[in-house]
# Entry
Amino acid sequence: MPNKLANFADQYILTDKVAVVTGGGKGLGKKIVEYLLAEGMCVAICGRTETHLMSTVEHFSIQYPKRIIAKVCDVS
# Structure
């Protein structure tokens, strides 16, 4: 099975674009954040749990400084 995300990245230049990821503090959302950062994007994450969000920001800020921010919010 081909990697659909790789095909997506081949079609679009994501460098220096901005993405907002809801639920980006853990699980699938966190994996999406990792992919977007690796593609050169700046990412804003939001979710309901501040500890998850801050942990994710701290983790990725080491490799991608000044490219990720977080805001606690409930989008429901």
Notes: DSSP finds three helices and three strands in the chain. The helical segments are 4-11, 27-38, 50-63.
